[in-house]
Amino acid sequence: MNRFIKILQPKVLISFLAATIICTVFCVEQSSAQVPPRFYWKNLNGVNAVPVIFNSLESNANPADPSHHIYPGAKIEADLMIAGYAKVFELMDRAAFVAALVPMGRVSGDVTVGGRSFSESARGFGDPMIEFGINVIGPDPIRNIPDMLRYEPGFSVDIIGDLIFPLGEYDNAQPLNIGQNRWAGRVGAPVIWQLGQWVPGKRTTLELIPSVWFFADNNDFVGLTLSTDPLFELEGHLTRDLTKDLWASFDLTYFIGGDSSLNGVKSESLDKAGVGFTLGYAINEHIQLTVGYMSTFNDNDDTELNMDRFLVSLTFGWHNLIEGMNRLGSSE
Q1: 138 near 118, Cβ under 8 Å?
Q2: What is the pLDDT of residue 240?
Q3: pLDDT at 11 over 60
Q4: Cβ atoms 198, 152 nearer than 8 A
Q5: Contact yes or no for 56/103 (Cβ under 8 A)
Q6: Strand pairing partners for 265?
Q7: Which of 56, 149, 177, 301 has the greatest count of CB atoms below 10 A from its CB?
């Protein structure tokens, strides 16, 4: 009871709500088909977020391609930035969100396709993506301040859907591009399991995100047709608050499936795991900084997926209610 009395003091309440919002705003990362930890935490209806994500990647697959089509023996480098917008709202009495993102940057490397060698570099805008998610098991939507003060995720399950539009820059004479010249999509069921008490500075979660990616054919891939079977992906995150503003996560990712074929000649399917970590820090009541690293392991065979990714993101989040309370607080 004393904790809630303290929180209800105006300035403390503003700080508490702003910290809660900024710790759970969106930060999706399309280029390696992965979602950062705490992405699917719920928030106050009406929260807005603008993420700006910087990626530096090395792989034997195009880092801008979520299918992870492998080029054996290749070394491909990419520097990508992803910018977007996300909003939390209520739909059919359940918490929901929608996010839109656009990648841009450069990708380069030496690859071999169909017996032909290419030394390529591409830059520009990639394929935009939208994601929609709705909670199906878990607490009621957070409609107001009392709901936020009482909120605990417990055990929650969402249903999500992604759609990637083939609108990015694409050159059919080269295999490495920022755009992929084909539709792609994903369906998944993120699970959040709260471990222990739900107090800022002490929050712990186990998060599992099983999903399946689907890919249309690219019928103009350096004169060939590139087809990819569905790709199953399982992500796991064990997250823990270190302070009320700083949190850390241990991350695991597993891919299986996604057999690719060029003009009917199939390559090996993916069967690969990666391990990494993420640190998140609330710089102020609006801005969240996230730093992460991920690498595949047991990847000495150049016909298997190998990837190293370093990520830095800044996310600006706001809510009209908090902005109004800030204005009232500053006038006191």
Answers
A1: no
A2: 96
A3: no
A4: yes
A5: no
A6: 262
A7: 177
The answer for 109, left when phi > 0, alpha when psi is -120 to 50, beta otherwise, is left
Give 193-249 as a DSSP string: EE-S---TTT-EEEEEEEEEEEE--EEEETTEEEEE--EEEEEEEEEEESSSSEEEE
Q: What pLDDT score does 47 carry?
A: 87
Listed in sequence order, the residues at least 6 apart from 170 whose beta carbon sits closer than 8 Å to its beta carbon are 177, 178, 179, 180, 181
Beta strands in the chain (DSSP E): 48-59, 75-91, 94-113, 116-125, 129-137, 155-164, 184-188, 191-194, 204-215, 218-221, 224-228, 231-241, 246-257, 260-262, 265-266, 270-282, 287-296, 307-318
Q: How far apart, in Å, do the first and last CA atoms of the chain sit?
A: 26
The whole-angstrom distance between residue 104's C-alpha and the CA centroid of its chain comes to 16
CB 156 within 8 A of CB 170: no
Closest to 287 measured CA to CA, from 54, 83, 103, 50: 50
At 268, list the tokens: 């090996």
Asked if residue 34 lies in contact with residue 57, where contact means CB atoms within 8 angstroms, the answer is: no
Is the overall model pTM greater than 0.70, yes or no?
Answer: yes
Mean pLDDT within 93-101:
93
- Tens of pLDDT, residue by residue over 199-222, are 888 999 999 999 999 999 999 999
